[in-house]
Amino acid sequence: MGISRWARALAMGIGGGLLATSVTATAFAAAPAAPESTYEDTPAPSPTKGDANEDGPGRKKAVPKKSGAQWGAPAAERFWTAERMESATPPEGATGRRTAEGPAGREASVRRGAVARGALRAETYPEGAKTIGVLYFVDKDMATHNCTASVVHSPKGNLVLTAAHCGNGNKYAFVPQYRTGKSPARQPNGIWAVDRVFRDPRHTDRGPGSDLDFAFATVKADRRGRQVEEVTGANTLTGTPGYQVPVTVIGYPSARNAPKDQAIKCRVKTARLPGYKQLRMACGGFYGGTSGSPWLMNYDERTGTGQVVGNLGGVGGGGATDAVSYAPYYDDEVFRLYDDAVGDVAVVERPPLPPTLGTGETWQYAKRLATGEYTGGGGADLLAVWADGEVTLHPGDGKGGFTAERRLVKPNATWKHATDVTGGDFAGTGLSDLLVRWSDGEVTLYQDVSAAGLGKETRLAAAGSAWKKAAQLTAGRFGAGEKSDDVVVRWADGEVSLYSDVDVRGFRKKTRLQKPNATWQRTALLTGGDFTGTGLWDLLVRWSDGERTVHKDVSTAGTGTRTRMGAPGALWKNAKVMTAGAYTGGGRPDDLIVRWSDGEVSLYADTTTKLGREVGLVPPKVP
Predict the structure, then answer these.
(1) Average pLDDT along the chain
(2) How far is Cα 253 from Cα 101, in angstroms, rounded to an integer?
(3) Assessment of whether the complete model's pTM goes beyond 0.85
């Protein structure tokens, strides 16, 4: 009945694919067109949804080909005429959308503030820098494309740096300090044929794999036997020192977006792109073609060199508009890839990326969350009800991560009416059950929910019952019992009730904890957990003004001792769904999960009356 959230995500342009376990070097033969695959003995990746790390143990390693002796400086000069270079366009996909007509967008994280809309704009840089130029290539249909690349120092002097999403082509050639309208022979520093491109196969357009949007290319000697670094000099590959870094960014926008077809330059201070290990800069003019542009500290105008601490790339190819751009943060991964390129190492094992639930573009549609021990592993698992009625189970790994998603219910009209869900052991079997309140006031219990399905359904309240006036509910151990079979309910009039020992027979023991009142009418979200470590469960409440409070040892005696966790404010008004459980081990249900308005999902491990350590499970959607 509904559109799958994966279909929604794909319609919005979310990338995905099988993640390989070996570094691959893409080769560029001088054949008339690029082959479908530049690897031997490598099966085509099967389609996957989202950016989940789903690499299989049986996947074969890639064996790359080199460009071959026929592709050298003479061949590159013949193929890349002035007309071909000038007509090249950015590669298809994210980078090609970096146009003036692109969506203006908001900051990636709604809850962390709006985009700084300054007037900073890149200046034309006609002279350019010898170390920076245009990287040209063709796709399998022989369409010509371009990115920006820069020379980085290496022992052999033959290495250039660009973005990983620029690394799927053929007939690669690098033109440092490019001049429009001039043939390769008349370019100030010639044209250099590329032998191989090295990029991390875990790179993806979105999700954590987008943090790996960097690539190195080895280039062949010119007609005189010189390496490129002898002619141009080189920048120094440098670990990113932090997220707030003053940099000079130089790139070559495509002629269709910058008719002067010249380099541009911007001096700017970076910030962090929330939810990613990436830098962010706000400076206009970085249209398609600038992907791969080096982000340089201590840039020397005289020598045209500096310390490269990033390159234009990252989530969505580096940004949706020309005004805001991203760059991957250089850590050990970039140096590991650099070593592979320097050593001309074709295959090196890579560990899988940390597990992730997906992207904010997907998780903005998660309307309800429930915690329970649904898989029998002894730790908490996450159940999600989506806007289109789909129900999914995300088994916890006990370390704050999650394994492969299991679909319990396909998209349908019925589950769109699930108004509240909470997990607890109501049937007494040790496996968690799911309690659901529907929009018409019906309440149902699904016994022994597991990866196999929702289990047996039992009606606890009929449609049209008083439960239609319930506003929020959460289950837990709010009493002396050993099971999480007590349910706290906040009603529309502000009354708070505790139903003890709920089971398949229904709600038999009711205690009023708060009489109807205006204060509790301001409850926006609530969830139960043992945050104070007494064994009795507590309530964590997010109020309508953004304030958070913890109510210690809720029981039939009342709502417990109230402690303020955080003051009112706009930030937490964007918290849309909460649940808690033992996601990080230790057995205590004190790990808080929050789904934010921008689709970001955060886990706060070992929360007490203060928020615990934040772990990003899902990055925010990107404009």
Answers:
(1) 85
(2) 15
(3) no
